[in-house]
TrEMBL record:
NCBIfam families, per the entry: ComEB
Protein known as: ComE operon protein 2
Any GO BP annotation: pyrimidine nucleotide metabolic process
UniProt xrefs under Pfam families: dCMP_cyt_deam_1
CDD domains: deoxycytidylate_deaminase
Family: Belongs to the cytidine and deoxycytidylate deaminase family.
GO-annotated cellular components: cytoplasm
Cofactor: Zn(2+)
Molecular function, one GO term: zinc ion binding
Superkingdom in the source lineage: Bacteria
Parts forming coiled coils: none
Binding positions (Zn(2+)): H70, C98, C101
Entry keywords, A to Z: Hydrolase, Metal-binding, Zinc
Amino acid sequence: MERINWTDYFMAQSYLLSLRSTCIRLSVGATIVKDNRIIAGGYNGSVAGEVHCIDEGCLIEDGHCIRTIHAEMNALLQCAKQGVSAHNATIYVTHFPCLNCTKSIIQAGITTVYYAENYHNHDYAIQLLEQSGITYQKVPFNPKHIAQYFLER
C-alpha cells in the first residue's frame, strides 16, 4: 500500500476546501503550507455576514463576480487574522491564481505556487512570478484519483 505524496495530499486538501465555495461561477480552494504543515486554507466565497452567490446569484461587474473573495486571498487573510506568517510558504491552489491574487501571494512572501488547472492564466501574473523568483508549477491532479487511495486500503 502506497502513501499519498505531499503534493497530492495538499492539492486534495485544496479540492476539499473548494467544496465549501459559495460562488456558482467557479469553485476554488487554496491551502498554504510551511514545513509540510497546513497553516491556512481558503475557498472563494462572500464576505462574512454577506449573502452568498449560491443564494442570491453572482454580483457581476466587468465580467467578474465582485461579491466573492478568492480562495488564495481568504487563505492569506486567515494567516493575517491568526498572526501566522506566510513568508517562505507554499500555496496549493485548484486553479491558476488571478492577477490580484498573484500580487498578494508575492507580497506575502510565498515562494512556491502549485496549481492543478489553468484558468485565464494572465501573462502579467506569470511575468511577476518569474521576476519575483517564485516557483510555479501545474501539477497533474484529478480529484477522482484520491478515491483510489481509499479503495486500495
